[in-house]
Design goal:
Blueprint lengths: L1 H5 L1 H5 L6 E4 L3 H11 L4 E4 L4 H6 L3 E2 L4 E2 L2 E5 L5 E6 L9 H13 L1
Parallel strand pairs: 1-2
Antiparallel strand pairs: 3-4, 5-6
Length: 106
């Protein structure tokens, strides 16, 4: 999430909103959000209902929920999704920003 915070202004300048969804309960999630001073939206999802909707993997041998990034357009259509195979398998911001630029030009 630090990676997303680092380039948050770049995302918002492209009319993009970041929503981070986590498995923690509301209190723990809110506490983390405050302590890390994250500027984007955080959604606690302890029931994993969003995870199930988008097919995000849970692997207990790899510390739980695998990372996933999705770009969803204004009509609610998933235009890009990346499912990580481990906790460090996350596209860099530059790649995501390029994809957003392409989508904004369509």
């Amino acid at each position: 999430m630090a990676q997303l915070r680092q380039d948050y202004a770049e995302f918002t300048s492209r009319n993009t909103e970041i929503i981070a969804i986590g498995p923690e309960g509301a209190e723990r999630f809110q506490s983390y959000w405050k302590s890390e001073e994250l500027p984007f939206i955080g959604l606690p999802n302890p029931s994993n209902s969003v995870l199930k909707l988008y097919g995000q993997e849970v692997n207990l041998f790899k510390l739980g929920r695998m990372p996933a990034q999705a770009i969803i357009d204004r009509q609610g259509v998933v235009r890009y999704i990346h499912y990580g195979h481990n906790m460090t398998d996350i596209p860099d911001n530059h790649e995501l920003l390029q994809l957003i630029e392409q989508l904004n030009q369509e």
